[in-house]
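Bump. Still looking for HEAT repeat protein structure tokens.
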Amino acid sequence: MATIGGPAAVESLIETALRDQDHDGTTRWHAITMLHARGDLQTFIAARRPCAGDTASERMLGVDILGRLGFVERSLPVLRFLAAGEDDCMVLYSVLIAFGHLRDRRALPSVIALGEHPDRRVRYGAAYALPNIMGSPPDPMGLAALRRLVKDPDDDVADWACLGLALSTGREVEDVRRQILDP
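Sorry for the wait, here they are.
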């Protein structure tokens, strides 16, 4: 794959993304998309640096880049390290979304553990990631974690977990909801 620009271009895109303080900002995500399009080792190395940054914004940016860059073998250890030691809920949310995009079953223990997190955003990220990493046939521990999340007090978490459980088991959403919530 041909790369777009050299090292200066990568650093410039990372700086551009960091300047946009809105996590969902257009400028930020345009820069991240351009970094994803590069898909090269140079971009991975540059994206790994902010994962160890001093601010949550830096770490979240690094994670958001790694999550779709495609270097699963190299990205997974970085993300699992953050999943185990990060305090910021939005960084953890980004880690979980990245796990979901990477679709690697080795992330399952980290995702299951974060499915018990007190912050609803983190549990939402776990509900998103689980159906993407459970494999086929779905891992029983992953299914159990989704069943717990279907009963989550936050409606968004519960709904996403219900959809994930339905997709993972090939059943209708309403059938899953009735079975879990009305035993």
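Residues 1-70 form a domain with the Leucine-rich Repeat Variant fold (CATH 1.25.10).

Edit: fixed formatting.
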